[in-house]
Amino acid sequence: MTAELVRGQNHTLPQTRLEIRVSAGSPVVAGATLGDERGTVRGAEWIAHPASHRVPGLEVSRQAAADHRLAVDLDALPGEVHRVTVVLALPVGAGRPVSFGAVAAPFVAVTGLDGTEIATFTLTGLDTESAVSALELYRRQGAWKVRAVGQGYAAGLAGLFADQGVAEAAETAAAIQEAVASGLARSVTPPPRTTEGERVRHPAGPAAAGAQAPAPPVPEAQPAEPLGDPASARTEAPGGGPIDYAHPRRQTSAPPPPPPTAPPAAPGQPARPVAGDATGWSMDERLYNQIWGMFEDLARAVAAYRSAVDFAESRMDQELDRALSDPRNRIGGAGDRAREAARAKRDELTGRAREALERDLAQLAAESAVVEPALPAAYAGWDNPVWHAYHVPMEIPMALRLGDLRLGEAPDLRIPLLVRLPLERGIWIDSGRTASEAAASTTGDQLRGLAVETAVTLAARLLAVYPAGEFSVHVVDPAGAAAGQLSPLVGSGVLAGPPAAGAEGVASVLAHLTRRVDLVQMAIRAGAADSLPPDLDTGEHLLIVNDFPHGFDDRAVTQLRYLADEGPSVGVHLLMVADREDARAYGPVLDPLWRSLLRITPVADDHLADPWVGHAWTYEPLRTPQGSRVLEQVLALVAEARRGGRR
Fold it and tell me: How is the beta sheet containing 598-600 ordered, strand by strand?
């Protein structure tokens, strides 16, 4: 029976191999410290955190996330360790909550490796604190217990570490936050939970092996995350003026339940998948929520499998150590029999874990086979027949597909990477060489060409999913190096103007968009949106920047950073094609720019992380089928609609 702890209460732990699961309404940093008999942390090597996620007997997540799974093996801790303290902290950064009083109360559960809950604790009563000692596992008279702590620190991680006796506490805390900031820049953030907006999970659903303990409901006032807030909105003009970047389907109440699903499956058989079986106001929203549910299911199923395999390997090592520590087993056949028995047990555990994973993957593959053909154009790949029936929409969709995500355990199962519209952050297509196998087999010139082609297909998608005349694309190509790849946009006539070249062209486009951002911001703040100049286009704008920073002086770099920071809130978005190494001369000046953008690659690369367990997901960009003219056909229809709107 699960023990629901309150602050200060303790509970005996029945086993020494555990998982600690954390659920929060906002991304948090989850770590742990090891303490001696007095609770003192003797050094940085006794702290597990995203930049150093493993210490003996303990492993934590590598990034900030709303959900975490910490693995604990109490038997593997150093002998002088008598206390393990689970630490939670809020990541620092613009737009992020600064205290736990501003977010939902975190929920912590101590479970066995099979997911059975042993003890839970909800950290209520926090206010100005930005770091908290959530709970501690401590050794008392040879037995291990768990205690609910809930001690918060307004001084953050530095104050918490100082209280535990860590030397150079402030420096250690700063290093952790720096590592977390780098991780957040590559993290895909899902939609926040709502009390009635959860994914409908089938009885034999994909995440059974890795399901988490239920988290407390998240209040509706939670801050929106960069990529996935179903109710996220752009700044609206007071008084209902002409500038409104709110999503047209924004709702303030909970969505209705999902539509009826397929008839129940026969006993013992997995439920048959149905497209759109999540909650939502429309089929688009239900499919959007279903895809995010598939993403989460796959992340948790693979996490459960990897955890089981690690446990089997660790158990085999321990059994071998115990068997071979006896000198009598080192002669004769006893040692060989011990090795065979340990390996057989390892293989049995690993095999059972693989069988569970294969069941989950089969269910997800069946669901994907049903969902993919049902996707609207904005969510579909270029090879989906829906594009052959394309027509210019009357309103923007909820989201846009940027590419596909997959994991090594399921190379044939791809989950669409969806981002909400309007875009809340810019996109950076990395044209530099990465460590991926696909990049290693591609020359530098090919990578740069593929990066521009990726930018063109993304721009075409954005133009295609917006109503005619409500989305404009500008291109900056200082040296004219991408003329060939840009030809679909240029030839169709969908660009707001010819690609800008040279220093003067760069300065002109940046000045135009900077002026637009300034004027719209001032009008909104003054409540005078109706007084904007008549020649000002209040639609959404996308700026494609190729080959940055070539052709950019210091003033242009400053303007670009300004557009990246201030543009999205008033409908100006950035799509950069750049090799970060080329911008190294600017040093830390451009670091905030890279972190503010969602990085994707022109070839397959495992650089994106999920927010639940921090897997490194392989991202694959969307390509048009070989020999297909679907891109040109779609752009021609967009251009025709734009010309009709100007008559």
Answer: 471-476, 540-548, 572-578, 427-430, 598-600
Contact partners, residue 125, CB within 8 Å, separation at least 6: 7, 150
Find where tokens 């590559």 sit: 186
Burial of 335 (0-12, 13-18, 19+ CB in 10 A): middle
Rounded CA-CA distance 349/343 in Å is 10
Provide the β-strand partners of residue 31: 87
Structure token pair of residue 416: 């669409």
Nearest to 313 by CA among 276, 343, 283, 279: 343
Q: How far apart are CA 571 and CA 564, in angstroms?
A: 11
Predicted confidence (pLDDT) per residue in 126-149, tens digit:
899 999 999 999 998 888 999 999
pTM over 0.90: no
**Could you tell me the sign of the dihedral formed by the alpha carbons of 571, 576, 582, 587, in that order?**
positive
- H/E segment holding residue 359: helix 334-371
Q: Phi first, then psi: what are they for 310, rounded to 5°?
A: -60, -40
Q: How far is CA 202 from CA 171, 298, 365, in A?
A: 47, 14, 14
| Nearest partner of 365 among 412, 407, 419, judged by Cα | 412
Amino acid of residue 493: G
Least confident of 80-94, 273-287, 508-522, 524-538: 524-538
What pLDDT does 268 receive? 63
Mean pLDDT of the chain: 82
